[in-house]
Amino acid sequence: MEREYLTDFELIALLAVLRLGDGAYGVTIARELEQTGRRTVLLGAIYAALNRLEANGLVRSSHGESTAARGGRAKRYFTVTPKGVRAVKDARRSFTALWSGLRQLDEGATP
Asked: Are 26 and 48 within 8 A, CB to CB?
C-alpha cells in the first residue's frame, strides 16, 4: 500500500541520499545523518527506511563491484527517483507552510 506522505526519518534519509549523490550507501547515509543531521541512527533503521522508500518508488538501488575488503560483498548504492524528489519538495512545502508565522519559533522567542 503506497502512502502519500513521508515519515520524518524517511525524509531525512532521502535528503542524505540527495546530498551524497553517487556515494550514497548505508554507511555513508548513516554518517551523513549523524554529522549533518546531528541524529544518531542505527544502520538497520537506515536499511529498513531505504527498503520502504524503494518499495514506494522513491529511491532505487544498484550494486557496485564486490571487493575483497568487504569479503567479496558489493555495496548497495541508492539514488533518489524523480518521484522521490517530488515527495521531498512536497514535504518542504508542507513544513514551510506549517512553520510560517509561528512566533514561538522566531529568533529570541522564549519557549
From this structure: no
